Structures are given as structure tokens and as C-alpha cells.
Amino acid sequence: MTTATAASATHRKPELLGQTVVMIGGSSGIGLATAKRARAEGADVILTGLRPDDALHRAALELDALSTAAFDANDPAELGRFFAGLPTPIDHVMITAGGPHYGRLLEMTSDELRQALGDHLLLAVEASRNAADRVRPGGTLLFMSPEGGHPVLGSGAELTVASAFPALIANLAVELAPVRVNLIAAGFIDTPLSASLLGGQLEKRRDQLRATLPIGRVVEPADVAALAVHIMSNTALTGATYTIDGGQQLIA
User: Fold this and answer.
1) HEC secondary structure over the chain
2) Is 21 left (phi over 0), alpha (psi -120 to 50) or beta?
3) In this structure, what DSSP letter does residue 213 have?
4) What residues contact 143, with CB distance under 8 A and at least 6 apart?
5) What is the pLDDT of residue 11?
6) Can you name the CATH fold of 14-247?
7) How far apart are CA 23 and CA 115, in angstroms?
8) CA 132 to CA 141: how far, in whole Å?
9) What is the pTM of this model?
């Protein structure tokens, strides 16, 4: 690398300078990491969480957020009120809200199955419906889903979501164009949510992944954040699913 090239790389223009990023589920984990990355790239951020708790307040102070909101993203009325109150236009919306749902399909109630699908698939539709006239042309709606894989007892709802989501994203990208719609499909990410799900088994899982993943380490929220900001800034990307798992799908 020449001196001129190094200087150019050092003084590059921030990728999201002057843009506004809305993080639905932005008080911790992947959402917070992405908000930090977007802020470092020059964006203003709007953060939301399920509750008006200390985590949301701390994140807003740390990032000097434009605003915050606390609501249930899976409640269509609350989601609609949030979008109606947003400044116009915004540039990017990323949704990390909605947790995993495990259990055998035939043992789950109809309400549990509806919630498992609604927490991801229906949320994506409702968010797209509300964001359609709020996001600037060329901006992004960015969603997250579990990574697909082989059926394992107890993972039926998650695998169903993982299988259906790419087709949904492709259709939304066609319907919302020129707004772009993309999906990040994640394997194990070392987040507070993962810690709460695994409890005392967390360190064992980390050790297993360090020993088996091709990258030799566990995937962190910052890794997902880097991918998310790239998808936001690259205006050629739409209708696609991007897997991030450290190579987990390559191992038996």
C-alpha cells in the first residue's frame, strides 16, 4: 500500500454520514452493536426497546440518540404509532426484536405457533407496510432470522421461519422498490440473549465453537453490525439473504 493509498483509507468518508438509522431492538446485543457501528459511520440513530429501562436509557446517552421509544414491536397498533411519529424521511430500519421459539411443533399450541411465526414473519410485513412511505428511496429495511439447517427435535418453528424468510424478503424487495429489503440469517451469536437461553451451558458452547468453527472464534455482535452497515451503505443490495455464522454451516 502506498502512502497516498494509506492516507486515503485513513481519511475515507464515513459510509452513513448524514443518514438516519432506526434500530428496533437497539438497547442491547446485535441492535446496540449495529447502532454503535452506524453512529461511528456518521449516522444519527433512533433506538427502541421493549421497555423504557436503564439499558435503553444508557444506550441513548452513549450514542447521543435522536430519540428513543419503548413498545412491543409485535403489536401492530404500537408499531404503527411508532412509525407515524418518526421524522420523515429516514434512511434505514433494522429490526432485531423477536426472540427464538423452541419446542416440538406438534406439542406447541396454535397460539404458540402463531407467536413463533408472528415474531419474525408477520413483524417483517407490518414493519414494511409502515415503513414504505417513511424510508428514503435507496434506503434499507433490514431484518434478522435464525440460520437454516437440518431438522432437530425442538427446532421446528425456528427452521420454518428460517426457510420462509428469504422468500418473504425477496417479495418485499420487489413490492417496496426502490426501498431495499434484505435479511441477515445468523448462527450462534454471543449476545446477552444467548447467555440467558444457555445459562450454565454458555461457556461450554463457546468452547465447542472455538474448537470447531473455521474462523476459530465465536461470532460477536460487532461482526453482525459490520455486515449490517455494509448492507445499508451498498445500494446495489436488495432482496438477498446474508448468512453469518463463522462457517458453522460447513461443519457436521
Assistant:
1) CCHHHHHHHHCCCCCCCCCEEEEECCCCHHHHHHHHHHHHCCCEEEEEECCCCHHHHHHHHHHCCCEEEECCCCCHHHHHHHHHCCCCCEEEEEECCCCCCCCCHHHCCHHHHHHHHHHHHHHHHHHHHHHCCCEEEEEEEEEEEECCCCCCCCCHHHHHHHHHHHHHHHHHHHHHCCCEEEEEEECCCCCHHHHHHHHHHHHHHHHHHHHHCCCCCCCCHHHHHHHHHHHHHCCCCCCCEEEECCCHHHCC
2) beta
3) S
4) 94, 95, 120, 124, 127, 165, 169, 181, 182, 183, 184
5) 76
6) Rossmann fold (3.40.50)
7) 22
8) 9
9) 0.89
| pLDDT tens digits, 37-54 | 999 999 999 999 998 889
CA distance 26 to 169: 21
Q: What are 97's three cell numbers?
A: 426484536
